[in-house]
Amino acid sequence: MQSNPMTWLIAALMALGALISFLHEPEGVQWLLLMWAH
Q1: Nearest to residue 30, comparing CAs of 17, 8, 21?
Q2: What is the pLDDT of residues 4-34, one digit of tens each?
């Protein structure tokens, strides 16, 4: 698996979106836990 800039960009955007959801909504915690479980 080679390092793809686009992959890093998408990963960064997803992480940023998850962080924003986590900060704005308490449900973000449960969502992250559910995603982590899967």
Answers
A1: 21
A2: 999 999 999 999 988 887 777 777 678 778 8
Name the residue type at position 13: L
Distance CA 2, CA 32 (A): 27
How many structural domains are present in the chain? 1
Quote the Cα angle for 16-22-27, to 5°: 140
Task: Give the domain extent around 12.
Answer: 3-35
Per-residue buried b or exposed e for 13-22, using 16+ beta carbons within 10 Å of the residue's own CB: eeeeeeeeee
pTM (2 decimals)?
A: 0.50
Tokens of 25: 């909504």
